[in-house]
Amino acid sequence: MKFExxxxxxxxxxxxxxxxxxxxxxxxxxxxxxxxxxxxxKILNRKSLARVSSQPGKTATxxxxxxxxxxxxxxxxxxxxxxxxxEKKRWAELIEGYFNQERDLRLVxxxxxxxxxxxxxxxxxxxxxxxxxxxxxIVLTKIDKLKPNERKKRLAAIPDELDVDLEYMQPFSAxxxxxxxxxxxxxxxxxxxxxx
Length: 196
Prior knowledge:
- With 196 residues, this protein is an alpha/beta fold.
- It has a single domain, classed as P-loop containing nucleotide triphosphate hydrolases (Rossmann fold).
- The chain is 33% helix and 21% strand.
- Strands 1-3-4-2-5-6-7 form a 7-stranded mixed β-sheet, sandwiched between helices.
């Protein structure tokens, strides 16, 4: 699998526009402005394949990227206050529509900003994924913005704040590249791991 080979496949604004699930899928979920696009670009070694917006809440579609026969699925960021109630409802329908379909979903990468306690919306998403028994990891973004002492405190506090049994929690920085190789390795494993 060559990460640089990835290309944008399609954007779905309603659940009816979702493509057929005909290949393994790795899903990226997180709060608006948590750094999903930056993370996807860093993993794929591309500057702007996933559009990075300075305006939170701008990604209103599920974006699909094809990576050598595996799909990377970028969900709309949640929790942005300045979005209308109708738009929030459409997002919810879209995301639930995705998770409610029979899909070859190998992994959900749940992004949380390392600098802050998880938000109410983070906890809602986390519990939704746990209740649905989706395979999941937590990635702590923007880790480079913490001083060594702050980083140590946050990494110790996060498991208690989330109140979940975490098998895998990966610090990540789109600036320094910390965590990139670990995530690439995990994506490879998930993509190649054929179900019994």
